Amino acid sequence: MTAATRLALALALTLLGCGEADPAPSPPPPPSGTPALRALPPAVTTADCLATVVAGGEPPRALSATGCVRSVEPLVLADELVPYAVASPLFSDYAAKERWIALPPGAVATFGAEDFLEVPVGTRFAKLFARPTEADPVNLELRFSVQLADGVRFFSYRFADGDAVLMTESATEVFAVPGDLEAAYLYPGPESCPRCHSRAAPLLGLSAPQLALPVQHGAEPARPQLEVWRDRGLVEAVPDVPAMPRPSDASAPLEARARAYLHANCGGCHRPGGYAPPELTMDLRWSTPTEDTRTRCEYTQYPGTASDGLRLSPHDPWGSILVRRMRAAEGDFPSPMPPIGRSLPDEFGAALVAEWAATLPPCEW
Questions:
Q1: In contact, 94 and 344? CB cutoff 8 Å
Q2: What confidence score (pLDDT) does residue 12 get?
Q3: Mean pLDDT of all residues in 59-64
Q4: Which of 53, 124, 228, 237 lies most in the core, judged by the most C-beta atoms within 10 Å?
Q5: CB atoms within 10 A of CB 327
Q6: What residues does each domain of the chain span?
Q7: How much is the CA Rg of the chain, to the nearest whole Å?
Q8: Under a CB-based contact definition with an 8 Å cutoff, are residues 107 and 80 in contact?
Q9: Residues in Cβ contact with 317 at an 8 Å cutoff, skipping those fewer than 6 apart
């Protein structure tokens, strides 16, 4: 019996003990299988998308004026933007996501420390967030990341009235999610982005293990994504590294799936140089050996915010502080993690980490 099944059973038994009640929520499932991406666009030699930002100026007020889209409704991006996928995505209130990358003409990216992608100045990334519905997803925002000489610049466009408008400050929209859930979705303003995108890890999805998965572009057969990038000229060499599994892939080892999930959802802050306090010992990067993550049988360092207990407890997996904070909502104690970017708990992720915690060696004191 999987952790997700045990969770559903526990909720059902609780409801039965309290008399008649509404059925437990049944949220959308996590991403699984081979990512089906849009068709590869033809190769181009232009770099019109966000040219003003690359030159040091400000982003246009409307998405239609960025040079990044051929159409807003339906959304069709410029040919210089190549669709890609990651193995372990960040959970964002069940939003469906698509991703694109565009390098300057003739430029190539390389893989550096921790097998992270190092891109030339002028590289642009786009990520579409869409609200899940019983039918087709509804576009919410298109976020951009632009590599400049002094770091990465982040901003987003919110879809409205046939176009999308540049977000100059954060905003929240409440909407229903399939499964009788309600999300308070955050549209981030420029001030919100550095809370997740630190200089130590500006873009967590751009590592070789995250990118080394098979993808399908349009009607083409599935291929290893990094081979597609090499053939496209985005990279010269493909590192020989083990691919990160999709957290939903039940055929992959449990520990690898849980570690992949924690890397994507927690590793941006919980790493040297991340947004977490410098004294915090927990390190949730994929590249960190499990015994060095300081999670199993380790007490929290800040009981005032994290509560007093074990980060991962083999004796009480669901009572593990990591799991409790993954399931927490605004106003709960301990407070929710991540602290920004989601209003709903990802019960799948919490169940996955709890299931892994239950398999860890017992504490030895």
A1: yes
A2: 39
A3: 98
A4: 124
A5: 20
A6: 33-238, 245-365
A7: 21
A8: no
A9: 323, 354, 355, 357, 358
